[in-house]
## 1
Amino acid sequence: MTTPEQLKKFVRNVPGYPQPGVIFRDITPLLARKELFREVVALMSKSWGDRPPDLVAAIEARGFIPGAAMAVKLNAGFVPIRKTGKLPWTTIAEGYQLEYGSDQLEVHSDAVESGQRVLIVDDVLATGGTAAAAVRLIRKLGGDVIGVQVLIELEDLAGRKRLPDVKVVSEIVY
């Protein structure tokens, strides 16, 4: 099994994207290697296998990639959490702040049944705004958020502080 430190070698750093001062952590080189992609899915699923979720709710867009694979591995359903205007049915919305602006997330209003155990998945935890908005969305629908799983955590941006009552698991920490 590849260690998180070894996985870092396959994460591309893109300075100045999407704006000056930001270093974008691009996971596409990591995902392109089939053996590493399988390991990432296994690693990200490990903490949730003993008591798996009913649903994996993944955040657009890069969160969909490990999220959908994890849902299959954990025998769970999959719920997409998307940016405004991308879902074709009745939605509920939640605004949030990014490290470089603000945005809004939406989920179908019937995506989660009351009491369902939901794991939220994304590629990166930065300031925590996106993950916190996703938690609020799932809770508005009556879901029990069992945790937030990310591949990468940008520790200096302190995103965990915005999720004080949620179990947060990250695999690679910068």
## 2
Amino acid sequence: MKKIGFILTLILMFSSCIMYVPYDDSREPGVRTYEPPSPAAAAPAYGEISITYIYEYLGNYGYWVYYNPYGYVWIPRGVGRHWRPYAHGRWVWTDYGWTWVSNHPWGWIPFHYGRWGWDNRLGWFWVPDVIWAPAWVIWRFGDLYIGWAPLPPGVDFVPGFGLRWGRRDLPDHYWIFIEGRHFHSRQLQAWILPPERNMTIINFTVVRDRYTVRNRDLIINDALSPQEIERLTRRPVTRVSVREVKKPEEAGAGMDEIRIYRPQIKQEQTAPKTVLKKEEAEQKISPVQDIRPEEVEVVHRQENSLLERTQKLELERLKRQAEEEAKSAPPQERQRKIAEGQSRLEELRKRHEQEKQELQKRQAEEKRTIRKEDLKRKTDEEKR
């Protein structure tokens, strides 16, 4: 009896030290595996900053608003109507897995700590948190598309466990989708599909929402393997070296390395110096401020082109699949397969038409709003 108790004690001791490393069933047997992160990846973060510092730093680039139930949230200033988190920048493969390199000077904070939420009147807002990751996103992956979406508020990461997320679903508009072949682009925003396409593309992709944890607190964003990306883009994935820096102004990207500033964040019971009410914030962050009608026309033409091109790709792909299925079917099943293929094509065309209508409706509303704001701006200038 004593021997059994001793064995149970040992089991409990060792089980408490197990780290969360999810099994990746996307790795194919016989395919070369990428080496694990180098020891440099486990180096401690440089320095320590406080929540007060973050309040002051981001206050230079946006507005703090008290927002139930999350407390103080931050809204970026001057990003424009079509802005979305994780849209202006690029993805690189590093010792931390897929790492987001932002084009925004403030991007080292809200794309690597915290969560992003959406409000119909305020737009995107950021909820602070203290755990660093190469990017707090989940992925969607398919034969034609790659998509990603920011983790929403309320999704916690628990060291030793992983993501604590109940419903595991997101509104369609959270997702950013591109044709997979553009994944390596340094200007991803030029290839982002209009959100009206999401209702169809979601059905063509599967969710990947795992993170690997190494050395207890080092978070690796590797839910998509490099091999999968290589198959879709037909380009090799090159690991980019990481250099950790000691100041935020030193962060950025060079030709063959990225510089990361990832300090530890000390929690404090404090508040931003300037906090807006929601009504005040709505006035300050007008999405059409300083946007000209001709600029919107350019964006709309790009959206229409991307929508038409990808819809055509889907129809061509589905037609080929239907023809192959009918060709390989036994003679007595061939007519049924042909009818099924035609039915699927017709259903896809209906969804495409719905997307076009939704896009045209949204674009028309944007044009009306911007023309109204442009006229008001000109009138105010004349009065001065």
## 3
Amino acid sequence: MSAHWPLTLYSQEIRLQPLRLRDRSRWYSVRLENKEWLSPWEATLPQVNHESPESALPSFWQMLRSHNREARSGRSFAFMMWNGDNLIGQITMGGVIYGAFRGAHIGYWIDKAYANRGFTTQAVELVTAFGFGELGLHRLEISMRPENTASIKVAEKSGYIFEGVRPRYLHIDGAWRDHLCYVKENPAVN
């Protein structure tokens, strides 16, 4: 792996950069304003061994430390999406596996006020180029609920191809939900 963390990626309209401690109030504000908008698509923690799922959620500081530790180890890269001075979302390339698989998955969310303006597609394209170019990954996946037509459009506009359905794939909005899987392969990795 040749990536050095922290790392910033740029397009004409957005910048992707790691979460910083000084972003705390903006992050909380955007998340709070978009709670209802994001809840149908957000990962939730299933109850295991009679634990309360909410008790397992990390603090902002723990999340920041985890993001940086995972990126430095090459396992996951979480970027905040910025349009000028506006925090507009987040994109993560996680589950990075090297060796014979050389793949990862991408997940994202965007502020409702910035949806349907091409920003998420730009972010996916930046992260895809990073994964293929810098990390030399062979395969990237994006999975979304079948009802999430906006996310399907992002995957398709970014050149990802529908691969199949994953029944009960992720715990989303309080239940195990089916997902569609879209895939893009790196033509430079044989």
